[in-house]
């Protein structure tokens, strides 16, 4: 990767976005803080990204999300004239720059800003190439170019985003994988669906020890009846901080799971998953079912069952409506409500394994 930022910033980028399993996150953060404290706006941008969660930095790096601090860093980045800071923060839906504009001197237009970041990308900086790919993927290019894109242009932008994401991945930037896989599997803006190509890049991601890719391959093994391999991939994904893998493991051992029923093991995985993803509807439903039905020396806990099933329902899932309706009908964990019970029981779907 071409060195176009302060040496400390470049080293931190390498550690935090490329050498994600190095165990040197604290060292890299210290480098960014040192450069930021000396007035480096680029350092503030990358420091902020570290605290924005899994869409900005791989969970395996092990940095807890703190958007309040991240936004403070972004404010400083813009005020210190960082082109990547101005460019990169445009993708953050709920971020509002203090002065109401992303463009700050010495830049006077979005086109000038595009040219500054594009030059870094063309000079070989992989992360800047990733930012350009995002501009095409999220159609922010329309803002930079001041145009209303037609279907042909959207198709071309999806293709250009895919090309840039591929280059980033081959250069070792794993956070480009989710967007590329979305393009390849969704037919975004008319792009051809390429499932085999997506599987190829998921395999590359698993080789890079990217947790969500390991989980996706685990799902494939599970669906093919290769449960031992699935377990290994899910455990690897958990080791690389993929929280969703707890749901996949818990589902294997609970009611309708593909492995012998083991509610204690299911409960162990699902509770860990719930601690990390408290609004995950699948986890809430399966935990709620265990507490509702009990078994294998696990006592029924209707208050917990109701709370979990109700949360899943409020978040749009009808999977547990039979149990939730029964709770209202019989007053289990909540006050009886015959009308609510009738409504929920009518919504109850045919049970599947989620």
Q: Catalogue the unreliable spans.
A: none
Residue fraction in strands: under 5%
Q: Count of DSSP helices? A: 19
Average predicted confidence as pLDDT: 95
Biggest β-sheet description: none
SSE pattern? HHHHHHHHHHHHHHHHHHH
Tally of strands: 0
| Distance from first to last alpha carbon | 43 Å
Helix content: 55-70%
General description of the model:
The protein has 19 helices and no strands. Among the domains are: 7-175, no CATH class; 273-347. Helix 1 (7-18) packs antiparallel against helix 2 and helix 18 packs antiparallel against helix 19 (338-347). By secondary structure, the protein is mostly helical. The chain is 63% helix and 0% strand. The model has no long low-confidence stretch (mean pLDDT 95).
Helix-strand blueprint:
Blueprint: H1 7-18, H2 25-37, H3 41-50, H4 67-79, H5 83-89, H6 110-122, H7 126-137, H8 141-145, H9 151-170, H10 177-186, H11 195-207, H12 211-223, H13 227-239, H14 244-253, H15 263-276, H16 281-293, H17 302-314, H18 321-330, H19 338-347
Helix pairs in contact: 1-2, 2-3, 3-4, 3-5, 5-6, 6-7, 7-9, 9-10, 10-11, 11-12, 12-13, 13-14, 14-15, 15-16, 16-17, 17-18, 18-19
């Amino acid at each position: 990767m071409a060195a176009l930022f302060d040496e400390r910033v470049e080293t931190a980028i390498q550690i935090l976005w490329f050498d994600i399993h190095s165990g040197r996150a604290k060292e890299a953060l210290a480098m960014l803080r040192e450069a930021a404290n000396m007035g480096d706006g680029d350092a503030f941008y990358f420091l902020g990204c570290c605290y924005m969660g899994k869409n900005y930095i791989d969970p395996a790096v092990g940095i807890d999300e703190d958007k309040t601090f991240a936004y403070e860093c972004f404010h400083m980045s813009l005020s210190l004239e960082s082109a990547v800071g101005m460019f990169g923060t445009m993708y953050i839906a709920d971020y509002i720059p203090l002065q109401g504009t992303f463009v700050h001197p010495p830049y006077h237009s979005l086109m000038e800003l595009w040219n500054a970041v594009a030059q870094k990308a063309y000079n070989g900086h992989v992360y800047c190439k990733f930012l350009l790919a995002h501009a095409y993927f999220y159609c922010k290019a329309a803002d930079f170019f001041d145009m209303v894109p037609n279907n042909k242009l959207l198709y071309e932008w999806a293709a250009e985003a895919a090309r840039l994401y591929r280059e980033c991945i081959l250069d070792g930037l794993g956070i480009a994988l989710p967007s590329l896989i979305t393009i390849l599997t969704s037919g975004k803006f008319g792009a051809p669906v390429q499932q085999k190509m997506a599987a190829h890049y998921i395999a590359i991601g698993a080789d890079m020890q990217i947790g969500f890719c390991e989980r996706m391959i685990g799902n494939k093994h599970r669906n093919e009846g290769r449960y031992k391999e699935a377990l290994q991939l899910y455990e690897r994904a958990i080791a690389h901080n993929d929280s969703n893998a707890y749901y996949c493991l818990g589902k294997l051992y609970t009611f309708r799971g593909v492995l012998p029923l083991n509610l204690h093991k299911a409960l162990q995985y699902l509770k860990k998953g719930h601690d990390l993803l408290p609004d995950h509807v699948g986890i809430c439903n399966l935990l709620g079912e265990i507490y509702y039905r009990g078994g294998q020396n696990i006592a029924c806990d209707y208050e917990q069952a109701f709370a979990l099933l109700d949360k899943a329902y409020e978040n749009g899932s009808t999977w547990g409506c039979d149990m939730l309706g029964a709770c209202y009908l019989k007053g289990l964990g909540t006050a009886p409500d015959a009308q609510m019970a009738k409504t929920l029981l009518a919504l109850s779907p045919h049970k599947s394994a989620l």
